[in-house]
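step=predict obj=C2H2-type domain-containing protein n=388
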Amino acid sequence: PPHIKEEQEELRISQDEEQLQGLEEADITKFPFTLVPVKSEDDEEKPQFSQLHQRQTEEIKTENPFSCSVCQKTFTLKGSLKAHMRIHTGEKPFSCSVCKKAFLASGHLKKHMRIHTGEKPFICSVCKKAFRVNDSLKRHMRTHTGEKPFSCSVCKTAFRESGNLQKHMTIHTGERPFICPVCKCDFRERGSLKVHMRIHTGEKPFSCSCGKRFGWKTSLERHMITHTGEKPFSCSVCQKTFTAKGSLKAHMRIHTGEKPFTFSCSECGKIFGWKTSLKRHMITHTGEKPFSCSVCQKTFTVKGSLKAHMRIHTGERPFSCSVCKKAFTVSGHLEKHMRIHTGEKPFSCSVCNKAFTVKDSLKRHMRYHTGEKPFSYAPRHNQDDIWN
């Protein structure tokens, strides 16, 4: 579960810094001090306790007779050396009674047990948030104080946590230590590699209430707009709105005339700014309809049209009005419907300026001005008239 992972991460960070702290403290507490009674001020025959304590403390600092044979670190007590050797031997004598995880020191086991007991003894004095280990509280306090003790030696950017500084330094060094075992793509951060792996594993951890799942949170957020009908990206020239920033960027080329890549039709010479536009256009020459409905065998030129068509058979209506809850099979129908609520009439007659909510209504209206009558009546002839 996520909360267990978070808790274990808190413990992991603190363990590195405190690995032998408890053992070193034990050196002092286990040292065999001899308590000497303090007599009157004029009694100078026997040493005072404070003097003896000072002398013995100095001996502790200067005498470390027990040395590690691996890394040469020295200790005052044999027990401390024994505990230290576990780092090299890998021995973990302190085991959790719940999950059986083992630890080098008893203090680490004590901290670990808080995962199971839920104990959080370290509390923030500002917001009262509680933590399992003291180091987590210390890091948290920086969010209140604004302290950023870790500074980049290159650009002087400061960070609250050393881990964030380490990630930042890869920008300057160019180091990308996290490599995908499948396609060998490399990444600066472990989290980026984890997200990338979903391409290979097919994992889709983000799900919509309609049942559709996504590999990335941003993909889910974009998908949610199809249900709400929201179009937060607006063209500064014609005010047309879009659901995605990329769509707005592509639209702006209509106004700027920019064509970063030009794709030319080999049949008619027409030029397109996007390769996909050329592909769709080519179907007008070939008449190809490669996407076929498995139910009624109707064919389509593009996959999206087939997908929308399938909703006729499934009854799915994923686009819902936020006002009256009416649902639609395609987003375009929802967009038209919303004009009922907003009163928007974007299609206006160039002759009399009458406005309409849908383009088809404007087309029908224009026939009054043009006199066009596209639908002709052909009367049925009598059989005798045909043969005469």
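step=describe
The two ends are 89 Å apart (CA to CA).
step=end
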